[in-house]
Amino acid sequence: MTGHPSLFSRSGDVPLAERLRPKTLADYIGQKHILGPGMPLTVAITQQKPFSMLLWGAPGCGKTTLALLLADRFAARFIRLSAVFSGVKEVREAVLEAQQERSLGRKTILFIDEIHRFNKAQQDAFLPYVEDGSLILIGATTENPAFHLNNALLSRLRVFHLQPLSEDELIEKLRRGVAALNLDDTADSVLATIAYQSGATRAKPSAGSKNGRCCAARAQATKTPSRKPLPTSRKRWTNRATGSTNSFPPSTNPCAAPIRTAPCTGSRAWWTAAPTR
């Protein structure tokens, strides 16, 4: 082992990610589109008027950290539950604690991680307490809430879509990490490579740039060859009595109404195949 500290070294038994968690909103990286001046979340923080919300975003974009920082700025008690391990019983206990805090004049933020894992009955349990203000619900989800949350609960939450961190934002996080590990000699090019390989959001290269031409050539080389549709041979059936045509005989047409046939008079059939036009 080298003389550098380990990523899992015992510094109060706290992992590196937890040690690097921002303590103030000023240190929070990313999500400028919801934390910028004049944004609803910024206005609520300034006016000290919290509201229930849903934080929707990819893993690692800062949903839990943002909820913790909001609880700190609103001077509210923070109760954290996970929908993976919790149920209605734990939610009722949290609601009871929130009601006790409210009687003392204090606010409570109930943070539900992976809230989309709750079923309909579990989600409905929040409705009366969110409506009367007993608690401030902050849910976090990686799934589209339009498909995984009840409309009744979703209508009572403000949805904020958190964006993945950009390459520059990841580089800033890496700089803080290497500084915490006393690895200040790490080159910026190494950090940029790590951020690039981590899948950071990057602007799509223009068609005229070198990267854009390379991407276009690669896409053309791997493009699946187009296939022409196979010709279909479909007979058209003509009614001898009326002269009308149909693509299906009466017995196989899925959309045709029931046809009352006349009694057999010795003719072969009412319908006969006609040549395809």
- Main sheet characteristics: 5 strands, parallel
Helix content: 25-40%
Q: Please, how many helices? A: 12
Low-confidence stretches: 202-219, 258-274
- Output the structural class: alpha/beta
Strand order, sheet with most strands: 2-3-4-1-5
Classify the beta-strand content into a percent band.
5-15%
- Mean pLDDT across residues: 77
Question: How would you characterize this protein structure?
Answer:
This protein is α/β, with parallel strands linked by helices and 277 residues long. The chain has helices at residues 16-19, 32-35, 40-47, 63-73, 88-103, 120-124, 127-131, 145-148, 151-154, 167-180, 188-197, 210-221, and strands at residues 53-57, 77-82, 108-113, 136-141, 158-162, 236-239, 245-246, 271-274. The strands form 2 sheets. A 5-stranded parallel beta sheet has the order 2-3-4-1-5, sandwiched between helices. A hairpin with a 5-residue loop joins strand 6 and strand 7. Helix 10 packs across helix 11. The protein is extended and about 95 Å long. Residues 202-219 and 258-274 have low confidence and may be disordered.
Provide tags for this entry.
five-stranded parallel sheet, 277 residues, 12 helices, alpha/beta
Secondary-structure topology with pairs:
Elements: H1 16-19, H2 32-35, H3 40-47, E1 53-57, H4 63-73, E2 77-82, H5 88-103, E3 108-113, H6 120-124, H7 127-131, E4 136-141, H8 145-148, H9 151-154, E5 158-162, H10 167-180, H11 188-197, H12 210-221, E6 236-239, E7 245-246, E8 271-274
Parallel strand pairs: 1-4, 1-5, 2-3, 3-4
Antiparallel strand pairs: 6-7, 6-8
